[in-house]
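---------- Forwarded message ----------

FYI, see the Cryptochrome DASH record below. Original note from H. follows.
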Amino acid sequence: MTDMNTHNQTGLYWFRHDLRLHDQPALDALAEQCDKLICLYTVDPEWFSPTPYGTTSIGRHRQQFLFETLDSLNTQLQSQNQLLHVVVGRPVETIQALIKQHQVSIVGIGEYQGFYERQQVQQIQQLNKNLKLISAHNASLFTPESLPFSLENMPDSFTPFRKKVEKYSTPEEIPSPVSFLPPPPVLARTDWEALPLQRGTISAFQGGEEAALKQLHYYLFDSGQVSVYKETRNGLDGWDYSSKFSAWLAHGALSPRQVYSELKRYEREHIENDSTYWLYFELLWREFFYWQQAKHGRNWFRQTGIKGRIPENTPNPHIIKQWQQGQTDNPYVNACMTQLNATGYMSNRGRQWVASYFVNELAQDWRYGAAYFEQQLIDYDVGANWGNWQYLAGVGSDPRGQRQFNLAKQAQMYDPHGEFLALWGEGESSVA
């Protein structure tokens, strides 16, 4: 609904890590204050440029998942007489051009605590002193105001964070659905085939909000697998041993508050046990790293991590390449890396194995491993990925310091019959 004060105002909503229509408080608030709306997503060319670690920011598996997610969002928007305007270009420059071209007076965003994402929003504000910015938290269970501590005083280890949050905080309620407005009539439609995103890989993961909500319902209500999650979560291969929500959460096709809401409904209607709690426990791990990156800023990416300690290692390109290609002296590390390169996914247990091996056995700089995961993983999340790598490397949030796994013992525990090794342990993997 608009009034006389909002007549002829054009708004722009910048989709980033929230590629969905549910749980969108800033988008809803923006729609109340304008009568034309641009829905924007930017594909940053920097994603495809080499990083200092010899990788790119996004590999072929995540590119396909992202394309599917954007296509799905556009289809949903078209059903609401809108469209998703996808531009290949640097985000700040792209938004500046649209503000000028369409006389945009209000911009809406979902808050995101990644260091570079926050920098970009600050740059837009600095360049447009009179621009109204509407923002809301839609990528987290909690807001800074609902946490039982300030970000500056947030615990740097998970257990005290979890205990305080469980005692004092409740996830935010999901807002009502968005009411959509039309785009400006002169807005160009996206040439989808021209987007520099690779397609054609075979994946068990289908991008988009519809697929996300389907998997949420399947895992909780159709299969009931959540009721045994604590017992199955350390599986190495297959679909039902874990929720698989991470890929959709990472792209924002699924809201963590939506997961929590449906989990509570499952507990009310079916069963509440240690396994259903453990899914919430894992959501809290995600939440912990999400806010930790906000607290520590650039240190999230520094070799010294949040502890300021310099690990003793010297990057060796040959050793790093062998690890990437699954050609090390450890067959389980090789199997996990082969699986990652072939599918864009690896189990949580496998991720701990290969990270521990990279840091402890190969004595390599943890950032090279984190950057490779960033490139390869469909479910890459800047908070969880870099936070977990710091944790394993002894420069992050682990109070015990550097962790080292006995991989032979781990393999006996989690692959006693050698089934995972038989499936993924043969042949060379493709790095892309």
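H. also flagged this: Residues 140-170+208-300 form a domain with the Serine Threonine Protein Phosphatase 5, Tetratricopeptide repeat fold (CATH 1.25.40.80).
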